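Example record

One chain of 441 residues, shown exactly as stored in the release files.
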Amino acid sequence: MEKVYDFLLHKVDLKSTDVVVVGVSGGPDSMALLFILTLLRKQIDFSIVVAHVNHNVRRESAKEAIFLEDWCLKNDVVFESMKIEKYSDDNFHNEARTIRYTFFENIVHKYHAQYLMTAHHGDDLIETILMRIVRGSTLKGYSGFHSIVEMADYKILRPLIFVTKKEIEDFLWEYKVPYVIDKSNFKSKYTRNRYRKNVLPFLKQEDPQVHEKFLKFSKTLYEYSAFLDRQVEKVYHKVYHDKQLDIPSFLELDRLVQEKMMYRVLEEIYHDDTMILHDRHVALIFDLIASSKKNSYIYLPNNIKIVKEYNLLKIVDEIQAVDNYEMELSSYAILPNKKHLQRVDDTKENGNDICRLNSREITLPLYVRTRKHGDKMDLLGMNGHKKVKDIFIDKKIPMEERELWPIVVDSKNRILWIPGIKKSKFVKKKSEKCDIIYKYY
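Predicted structure tokens for this chain:
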């Protein structure tokens, strides 16, 4: 752990007048960081404030909070905690992270702290980089996280980024530091856990110090990202202002600058939350800009609407209500009901979330829209048609959901598919010839 001590003593230069807020769950990583800080406090005598969040999703959470509070009391450390009473977002991890960091920042301001420290370590960095490469991210996102992040009036520090999980475990054993175990960290249903169990062991077998390679990779990408940021800054406000992008001026820029600028626009909208942003979101926007249509739009997560009006691209955020919509269906679409439609090459699935079509039997392009008065659909396996209204009633779809439910039609306005609910006579079986397959999720 010498690299951790060296970082805190020389890179950070902790002083006796400093206040350090440290995010502690009670698990091995955060307890190791907390214990290291108490050891350094004997040498420098700075102040430590523990910030603990009870996520309230496991029975053990309350006992873990008590364990940590008792430890802080015995070791003369200030203890601050909060309990998340209710979640509202579809993405639990994203919402929990937002709540957690908001709480941490509140504690930083309460105690006028200079630093917020978290226990992210070298193995976490590997997992984060690999996950973002697979799911798609920004150049900055691909670099993972960093040892020092400059905030407006404090710094976020990650001192354990230089060491591995094994080094942390050895340290805890040597100093007999108590900690709790979150059993959910071993469940394979979570993406990060699968990387931890299946990918990391292979990488460490290839090179036990592989985390150092990823750390170098992270720093390199971050520097390239910073360079591009400087290039974007020179032209940003000339091309984009008041949530409007001048398309002709934008297209004159180098492609790398275009992409970086678009990511910056999205980061402003989503407050730099790389857990929401995907590279496919930027691809959708570029497709919209390149479209021959003079007036068109797409939806991004959280009901962000990107509108193309002739030579302008407009960002409409915080949409409170969407009465209706209609958009051309490309290879991928994010819908106002927060669902996705994606064209796939093949799938073994065959439920109502899958639609197989033969382009010779329909008229392209396809569109996805909300229902219209009098909509009727020729059902698969049945003679005649049925009103879309009656289909919704039969499936007991709530009224408020019907208004935004997607309906896929061809250019003759023939209803081909109500995703997740019903297929038309145009939808093919797995055994039949098809060249278009869409998935709804």
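Notes: The chain has a mean pLDDT of 90.
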